[in-house]
Specification:
193 residues, 69% helix, globular, mainly alpha
Length: 193
């Protein structure tokens, strides 16, 4: 099980909040913009932050950032529709999967298997919720059908999973470095026998 001090959780939480500020509103990666990290942020918040109030805080931040980039930044409001409220469930799936993974986490390489399984499964459910609600409830598509929706999932789903996997991969590297440094500093303070 993953247990972090309040200090580490605060640091990670602040980092996640800042990462959302830096990446939300840029839906495609370019030379000057990283891909939107929202999915990974909710997944990692579930893993690393034990305070339940952090989830609604991230939801509020995401909505505020969307409002700002649409009203002040000139970003299209095409994705804002009656389906927008379903992002709560979509992000909730990722947050919950992160929490479930944290409960089985061990500081061993074998823990990558459940991490990847939780990530892929949660991403799939999240994508069906967010894309499905937008496809069927936004009013942007005439005569929505299951075959067309499945085609859209096949077209856009891998990109979302790739973005999530990119950020999870970065987090794995950071986690291993920090864990190794913590372990080494603990050994340095152990009295010699």
């Amino acid at each position: 099980m993953l247990k972090l001090s309040d200090r580490y959780q605060l640091f990670i939480g602040l980092f996640l909040v800042l990462l959302m500020v830096a990446t939300r509103g840029h839906h495609l990666a370019t030379i000057t913009h990283l891909p939107d990290a929202s999915l990974a942020i909710f997944f990692h918040a579930g893993i690393y932050i034990t305070r339940v109030w952090f989830f609604p805080l991230l939801l509020a931040e995401a909505a505020l950032l969307d409002y700002v980039v649409i009203t002040l930044g000139g970003v299209s409001s095409f994705c804002v529709s009656a389906a927008y409220v379903f992002l709560i469930a979509s992000y909730g799936v990722l947050w919950f999967a992160g929490r479930k993974y944290a409960s089985v986490h061990k500081e061993q390489w074998q823990t990558l298997v459940p991490l990847v399984l939780f990530m892929v499964f949660a991403d799939g459910i999240s994508e069906v919720i967010s894309s499905g609600s937008f496809y069927y409830l936004s009013g942007r598509f005439t005569d929505p059908g299951l075959a067309e929706f499945a085609g859209r999932l096949v077209k856009y789903g891998p990109g979302m999973l790739t973005s999530l996997a990119f950020y999870v991969g970065c987090a794995i590297v950071i986690h291993v470095i920090v864990s190794t440094l913590r372990s080494l500093s603990t050994k340095d303070h152990t009295p010699a026998i």
